[in-house]
Design goal:
The protein is mostly helical. The protein contains 12 helices and no strands. Helix 11 packs antiparallel against helix 12. The mean pLDDT is 83.
């Protein structure tokens, strides 16, 4: 879903983008971060109809829940499940460490992404970057303060945007290093960085692989 949203945004297929972002919170609750960030984008473009339409499916689903389901029954199953889950977490300290988020991406990938944020090209994606940042901050804080646990699958939806930033970062690194080290040495360094990033992820036993 995030990959197609990225495609729709880059190609200015805004009707497709609205349709996808509107259902994002129904796929994962954290999808609301992208819904809100894209609504700000459409408000900035004075496309108020699209900004409102982003919230229609989620609001309709909420009304359906309130009208047809006992809300207590809808979420009550999570309470005993959370008790079992917390017992497991206490025995696995790895799940309580929020910095595993950065381990997931690896140092090489993270460096490239940070470089990308120094360039102007990446900021054209600011609505998606805002949603991605909110998603990361939300789960980092939840794990840090004990309201959640680390699960690699929760961060996989952020990979499409991360990969675009990674590519932009590699390109920017190449542009900055070429005048100092020459074209061919710079190409070798960029390819090495790319292979290290991919290798780090490939060696993991997580959904990121």
């Amino acid at each position: 879903l995030m990959a197609v949203m990225l495609w729709a945004f880059v190609n200015e297929r805004f009707n497709w983008l609205v349709a996808l972002a509107a259902v994002a919170p129904l796929v994962r609750p954290e999808g609301i971060f992208f819904t809100v960030s894209l609504s700000l984008f459409f408000v900035q473009k004075r496309s108020f109809n699209r900004a409102i339409l982003l919230y229609v499916p989620g609001f309709a689903y909420l009304l359906w829940l309130l009208a047809s389901v006992d809300v207590h029954q809808f979420y009550a199953w999570r309470l005993p499940f959370a008790q079992i889950q917390n017992s497991v977490i206490q025995m696995v300290p790895f799940l309580k460490n929020p910095f595993n988020v950065f381990y997931l991406a690896g140092p090489f990938f993270s460096i490239d992404v940070l470089f990308a944020l120094l360039g102007r090209s990446s900021w054209r994606l600011w609505p998606l970057l805002l949603g991605r940042s909110a998603w990361l901050i939300f789960w980092f804080g939840a794990i840090l303060f004990g309201y959640g646990e680390f699960e690699a699958r929760l961060f996989v939806p952020l990979l499409p945007i991360g990969v675009v930033l990674w590519i932009l970062g590699l390109e920017l690194i190449g542009d900055r290093l070429a005048p100092c080290f020459g074209l061919w040495l710079t190409k070798g360094l960029v390819v090495t960085l790319a292979l290290c990033s991919v290798g780090w992820m490939w060696l993991q036993s997580t959904p990121v692989r």
